Every structure is written in structure tokens, then in C-alpha cells.
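Customer escalation, tier 2.

The customer says the design service returned an amino acid string that "doesn't look like it belongs to this structure." They asked us to rerun it and document both sides in this ticket. The original C-alpha cells are below, unchanged.
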């Protein structure tokens, strides 16, 4: 564990205005309610300002509006956006404390003929890199990782243990891909024959993932059927997400756990989806659409904004009748009020 760091060093690296003793040593980052005299904490939401009085934190990251209240009791780092400052602080903190994997290929790894592994990359124990695959400078393939033939992993991307990147799939630079992720499994494509049996539709596309993407544990991104499945730059996906074949996700979208996106849906840029949300196939969402948790999107959304919706499960015929009625409730209410005024 690296030695404690003085506040002066933190501010020199990340900026902000330091109020108080620059030589205070910080040993850990902590929430306000469990911080002690060696801890650095932050306050992003003013409604938790009451916790400042009881917190033992040596220093708190705050906005200018709270600087006087904090500085009267302890040191403070003042910044316009404390939450963003804290995010960057955690990155800086982790870089100091986490040892980078050593470059090179573990003796138990299998590197097929024709694969290109940069000398600065790290290939972990029992990992596999297929023929014609390319592993960029500084990239990490964790233990038991699988990079299929002709797949590409960009510079400084980190694949945790047991990540699978399928044949010819592409991961951009600086990706963080957590354990259990499968990129490039077959999409769900079957055609019924006259006997009622399902005939497989071979999935001939790939998955293309942009730069600076993070993918949570056990998320699956299916390869395209004919065209490719595409995940744009800066996208953040939580754990246990299912992305169907031929889906296109625009730059800088963020999706929480257990979201499901069915095949060929097209998601614009800067969209978000709360946990458990479902987006049906072949729909389009424009830029800046925000779906709240557990919402089922059954039609395209062509106007930016926030959308929500839950509806009770029922047999399909009844559900369709009720759904049609539900959409008219507002106008029915207005008509009822008009009738009441006349009576």
C-alpha cells in the first residue's frame, strides 16, 4: 500500500481551491458518515449538508456555496462540481495504488500463429489469443480470457478474467470489460419450417465497440446477423445487460443493470436507460432520450426527453384493449369534468 498523500499533492494533480492545511496526510477516501481524521470525503448533494457537523473527515470536497461552512471546521477542496472532482480523484487514487500488470505473455497462455501481440501488452495465465488477432499496446487480457481469431483489442484496453471476445469482433482503445462479458455470441435468429421446427439463421456480422467503453460483468453483446452490432464511443454498460444482434448504440449512452435491447434497435447519442428497462426490436430512439427503470419501450421515440411506463400483464387481447383505453384517459377525464360542470 503506497504511503499517505498530502492534500497539496492532490490539489496539484487535480486542481481546485484548497482551504486549510495543505500538509494534512490522506490515507483513504471515505463517505462522510464513516470518514476519520485521515480521510478525504465529498459532498455533492446539499441535502446531506447536515452530515458535515458529525463527520470526522480531515477534508471535504465541496461546492463554493458550502466552502465557508466546511472551512470553519476542517480543510476543504472547493470546486464547481464536487461529484465530478471525486470521480477524477478515484481514478488518480486507483492509479497510485493498483499495480499495472506486467507486460508479456504468461507461459500457460496460448497465442496462435499469426496473432500480433504488442510487446507492451499483458496476456494472463491460461488465456487464448486466436490466429490473426491483434492485441494493442498496453492492453490486458486477463486470466482465462478468450480473444477469437482475427479479433482486435485496442490500446490500453483491460479485459478482466474470463472475458470472451468472439471471432473478428473489435474492441476500441481504453475499454474496461469486466469478468464474464461475452462479446460476439450468436444473435437470436431462427426461422420456423413447415414441421414447426426452428432452423438456425447463421449470424455473419460482428460486434464493433468504440473507444473508452466500459462493460459490466456478465453482459452479453450479440454479433450481427448480416450487418454489425455497434457500440459507440464512451458508452457505459452495467452488469447483466443483453444487447441483441444488429443493435446500434450511439456515443456516450449509459445503461443500468438488466437492461435488454432487442435486435436491430437503434439508440441515439447521450441516451440513458434505468435498471430493467426493455427496448423492443427495430425501434429508434433519438439523441438525449432517457428511459426510467423497468420501462418497456414498445414504439420509437423521436423526441428527446424522459419516458416512463409500466402496465399490468394480461392476455394479449385484453391487454391491447386496456392499453388503447389507457392512452385516452386524459381526454376521458376532461370530458368527464365537462359533463360534471353541466350537471
Amino acid at each position: 500500500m503506497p504511503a499517505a498523500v498530502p492534500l497539496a499533492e492532490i490539489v496539484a494533480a487535480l486542481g481546485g481551491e484548497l482551504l486549510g492545511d495543505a500538509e494534512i496526510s490522506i490515507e483513504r477516501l471515505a463517505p462522510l458518515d464513516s470518514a476519520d481524521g485521515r480521510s478525504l470525503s465529498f459532498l455533492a448533494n446539499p441535502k446531506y449538508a447536515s452530515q458535515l457537523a458529525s463527520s470526522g473527515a480531515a477534508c471535504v470536497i465541496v461546492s463554493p456555496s458550502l466552502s465557508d461552512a466546511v472551512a470553519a471546521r476542517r480543510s476543504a477542496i472547493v470546486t464547481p462540481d464536487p461529484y465530478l472532482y471525486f470521480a477524477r480523484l478515484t481514478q488518480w487514487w486507483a492509479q497510485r495504488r493498483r499495480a499495472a500488470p506486467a507486460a508479456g505473455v504468461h507461459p500457460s497462455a496460448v497465442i496462435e500463429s499469426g496473432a500480433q501481440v504488442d510487446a507492451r501488452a499483458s496476456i494472463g495465465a491460461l488465456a487464448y489469443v486466436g490466429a490473426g488477432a491483434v492485441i494493442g499496446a498496453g492492453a490486458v487480457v486477463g486470466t482465462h480470457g478468450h480473444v477469437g481469431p482475427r479479433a482486435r483489442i485496442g490500446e490500453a484496453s483491460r479485459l478482466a478474467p474470463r472475458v470472451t471476445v468472439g471471432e473478428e469482433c473489435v474492441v476500441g482503445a481504453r475499454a474496461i470489460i469486466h469478468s464474464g462479458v461475452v462479446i460476439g455470441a450468436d444473435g437470436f435468429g431462427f426461422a420456423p419450417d413447415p414441421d414447426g421446427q426452428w432452423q438456425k439463421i447463421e449470424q455473419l456480422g460482428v460486434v464493433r465497440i468504440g473507444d473508452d467503453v466500459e462493460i459490466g460483468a456478465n453482459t452479453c453483446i450479440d454479433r450481427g446477423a448480416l450487418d454489425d452490432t455497434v457500440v459507440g464511443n464512451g458508452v457505459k454498460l452495467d452488469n447483466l445487460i443483453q444487447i441483441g444482434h444488429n443493435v446500434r448504440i450511439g456515443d456516450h449512452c449509459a445503461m443500468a443493470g438488466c437492461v435488454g435491447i432487442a435486435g436491430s434497435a437503434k439508440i441515439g447519442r447521450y441516451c440513458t436507460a434505468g435498471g430493467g428497462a426493455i427496448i423492443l426490436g427495430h425501434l429508434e430512439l433519438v439523441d438525449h432520450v432517457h428511459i426510467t427503470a423497468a420501462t418497456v419501450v414498445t414504439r420509437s421515440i423521436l423526441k428527446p426527453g424522459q419516458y416512463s411506463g409500466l402496465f399490468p400483464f394480461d392476455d394479449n387481447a385484453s391487454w391491447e384493449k386496456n392499453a388503447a383505453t389507457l392512452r385516452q384517459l386524459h381526454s376521458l377525464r376532461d370530458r368527464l369534468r365537462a359533463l360534471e360542470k353541466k350537471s
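Tier 2 assessment: The sequence is consistent with the input. The first strand starts at residue 5 and ends at 6. Helices lie at 7-14, 51-54, 67-71, 82-97, 316-326, 329-342. Sent an explanation to the customer and offered a walkthrough call.
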